[in-house]
Specification:
Blueprint lengths: L5 E2 L2 E2 L3 E6 L2 E6 L2 E2 L1 H10 L1 H25 L1
Helix pairs in contact: 1-2
Length: 70
Amino acid sequence: MEPKPYRGGAPIQSVSLSITVLGVHARVDGRTGWEAWRALRRQHPRLAWIVGGYSVLPVLLAVLLALSLF
């Protein structure tokens, strides 16, 4: 018996997010970079907003901290 690439008529999706201190790396269906982010926004818009907010939060905190020191 051979493995079937489709389950229930829908193609199998592969979404991988790596979140580190230095940034976020997305991989969607074998695509990386901006292509992956475009596909992620199309397929999972809420997740894209959450990850984008997580990426902006440290920058915002750094700016607020710098402003409070001066």
